[in-house]
Amino acid sequence: MRWTVVIPLKPLARAKSRLADTASAGLRPALALAFAQDTVAAALACEAVADVAVVTGDPLAGRELAALGARIVADEPGGGLNAALAHGAETVRSRDPGSAVAALNADLPALRPSELARVLHAAAEFPRAFLPDAAAIGTTLLAASPGLELLPAFGTESRARHRMSGAAELRLDAVDSVRQDVDTGDDLRAALTLGVGPRTLAAAARLLIPEQ
User: Fold this and answer.
1) For a designed S-S bond to 142, which of 58, 100, 104, 130 qualifies (C-beta 3.0 to 4.6 A apart)?
2) Edge-to-edge strands of the sheet including 139-144?
3) Model confidence, pTM
4) For residue 86, what is the domain's CATH number?
């Protein structure tokens, strides 16, 4: 099974506010874009991925991610993360009703195509499945097999909500790059330790990141 990956991205000017202790307001938009670019590039390089659809209303992000090969879906609902994901999945399936769809965070700058493939192959064994984040509280990936609604419930404590929705929790080792999203300075340090993509590496070089 090959998947269409749906990646939501809020306007860059409002992205990554929790990185305020690490990146100034002037640097955070570029950092958020770099995260998204490295995430999209890795997803497109994954052998289990047929297509990547990015849901965003940000013109700059749309241009830059389209240049990488992503399909851009306008964030018409403007209703937040879960509304964007539901809209993206609906748009994908309006063109191809038989698509297997996976929602993926836009802030996975250390993402490895081979690790994403492992997660998606495991998800294919279930009607709906999700992968918890590195903190074991949130979610970085939610997958729905053909014919099934995605039913995204991202946000605070989304691991519990996705489990309660009936999605199977994927318990995999050695897929740290798919779990390591970046919301805080500590998250960014963890991603840098794993090894981030080239755009994030260049953007992070402009930051003063203190040692833990």
Assistant:
1) 130
2) 71-74, 49-56, 3-9, 100-104, 139-144, 128-132, 168-169
3) 0.96
4) 3.90.550.10
